[in-house]
Amino acid sequence: MDNDTIELFERIIKEMKDEGRHEKHDAGGAMTAQQLHGLGGIFAHLGADPEFLSTYVRPQSIANVLPVFPSVNEDPRYWTLTGFTEPTGDQPTNACDAAPTNYTKGCMLTAMFGLKRFDTQEVEMDKVMLRINRGDFSDLRFIGDPITGGTNMFPGGVTRDNALNVITAMEMLRTAANMEMALHTDVWQGTVAAGSFPGLASQVATGQVDAGTGTACPSLDSDIKNFAYNDVCGTTLDIVEYLSSMMYYLESLAMDTGMGPVNYKLVMRPQLWFELSACWPCSYLSNRCNDASGTQLLTVNDGTNVNMRDRMRESLKLPVNGIQYDVVLDTGIYESNSTNNANLDPGEFASTIYAIPVSIAGNYPTCYREYVDYRQAAPDEALLRGRPSWFHTDGGMYSWTYLETRWCYLLSLKTEQRVVLRAPQLAGALQNVGYTPLQHLREPGYGDDNHPYSVDGGVSYRPGGTRYAVWS
């Protein structure tokens, strides 16, 4: 294992040495972990090169740019001044007569944690060191860093170093990757009904209500527009008109309510960004350049379009109304296709472009992640006289525990997180934007029906070789 992983595991073992611990935290007692080497080991083919390449596709996520804060508040309330009631009463004749009066109005928002849990397979200590014979080398190594990184949601202390040779390291790596993948999806698609925290797709919405009374708060509604499955580069609807209108509305609202300037991120799926950036320069440079019949009056026939497109793709910035907005690519945003949406034909896709206000005037955060800070249990843990069999990483964001029965053990990982959108009225969504790429990208996932553009292949078990002996 690498030093960080060794340190993590040694901390767990140290926690478990108090007498009587094993009776309270039991593993099942049977090896279920994959054998990496030895008979049946998936990496035990004799004579194979030690260098290991990977086709695992890492997720891309807005979580990379969102601030992260610890919290222990289960039911937070966030105040917003929504306005004032209309004054009642008549204007007085005399200065000291009663005059019209009114009241202040406010609205509360709230947020909710969602629990995520994953276990390693069970490891039997007797088997972790086995090799087929002297030809079964344990010097495999990854080329590059194909697993970790990309979302800022991968549990710390777990790396790919030596995970190809040490069973426990691989079990921890895979469990951490499962956690990252689940959180990556929930940031956008999470719902309370599915046992998760509400994702941003549920929060960037109309129909906002007061958290204490359920009273409608329309001044907190997001700006939602519908591109109606039209192609992003088509001629029926103009993507420049729609995005320009949405950002003009949001920026104006921010300035009119004293919250500007806003640090906006335009968030979309990578495939949609590639198609949008191809046609945006021409549409943007020629916007409103048609005559009454719709004929284009402006001809762009030099390298301006290509240069602008290349700059956009290289810098991940989109010019809208003269402002250069940061573009964030996120594979966690839901994508419609011909299988799950009757509005689309085979080869057509649709998803949403989001305008997310990360912070407002004074760099005050308005969209961020929070997590239950497990470190805050320290006063209670201290009363257990050092007996707890768990420990925390990433500033209390993730908690690991260790279960053992005789020579068998497994590790469990959990976290409780949420995404908070404090100013939904400054957020926007251009929904159902269509695109028809020549070829769809591979995407993160498990190669199942829920991840149609994720592919893997290969095997998770290799049968042991045949051997002959007088006793066999």
When the domains are counted, the total is 2
Structural class of the secondary elements? alpha+beta
The number of distinct β-strands equals: 18
- Would you list the SSEs in sequence order as H and E? HEEEEEEEHHEHEHHEEEEEHEEEE
**How many separate helices?**
7
Strand content: 15-25%
Mean pLDDT: 88
Give the structure's gist in a few sentences.
The protein is an alpha+beta fold and 472 residues long. It is 19% helix and 22% strand.
Considering the chains and any ligands shown, give keywords for the structure.
alpha+beta, seven-stranded mixed sheet, 7 helices, 18 strands
Question: What is the topology?
Answer:
Blueprint lengths: L2 H13 L35 E2 L15 E4 L5 E8 L19 E7 L3 E6 L3 E2 L16 E2 L24 H23 L10 H4 L19 E4 L12 H18 L6 E6 L1 H16 L18 H12 L1 E4 L2 E7 L19 E12 L3 E2 L1 E6 L5 H5 L7 E4 L4 E8 L2 E14 L6 E8 L37
Verbal overview:
The protein is α+β, with helices and mostly antiparallel strands and 472 residues long. It has two domains: 3-70 and 111-198 and 371-419, no CATH class; 216-369 and 421-435, no CATH class. 19% of the residues lie in helices and 22% in strands. It has helices at residues 3-15, 167-189, 200-203, 239-256, 270-285, 304-315, 378-382; strands at 51-52, 68-71, 77-84, 104-110, 114-119, 123-124, 141-142, 223-226, 263-268, 317-320, 323-329, 349-360, 364-365, 367-372, 390-393, 398-405, 408-421, 428-435. The longest helix has 23 residues, at 167-189. The two termini are 36 Å apart. 32% of the residues are buried. Mean pLDDT is 88; it is low at 15-24.
